[in-house]
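Before a computer can learn anything about folding, someone has to put a protein's shape into writing. The outcome of that step, for a single protein, is printed below:
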Amino acid sequence: YEGRLLQISKSILPRGADGVFPVFDLVLLGIGPDGHIASLFPNRPEVSAVSGWVLPVEASPKPPSARITMTLPVINAAKDVVIVALGKSKAEIVERVLEIQSLPGALPAQLVRPSAGKLQWLLDTEAAKNLHIKDWSNSKLYPRSG
């Protein structure tokens, strides 16, 4: 699958300054109750992949067990990344991801940090109800480290 993606012209799918990873205009993600994004699940080897555009995910903790996912370097190369969380069932994980620093890989959503792009969260009132953040002007401050 990745081989086919690599054949796409750079005029159609531009590459970043490194010349390696594609630069998508927008990556739209949801977030799971365990903090996973795409098919990057907590404490799994796929979370720490530093090369490749896509990876197979076998024995996923959430059905279907066989999946394919974009890697974090591809997600973080995007111009804009949007993470959407709706409903009260997402309130706890949104708070954990945005306000409590975890161990590396424990909450993959915390690793979404576009290198040259923007990260935006779209939350409804219920998903945001546990947040204590008052000033969002510097997104690099979140998650808090203590």
Remarks:
- Strands lie at 26-30, 54-57, 67-70, 80-85, 118-123.
- Residues 91-99 form the longest helix (9 residues).
- The chain has one domain: 2-129.
- The domain at 2-129 is CATH 3.40.50.1360 (Rossmann fold).
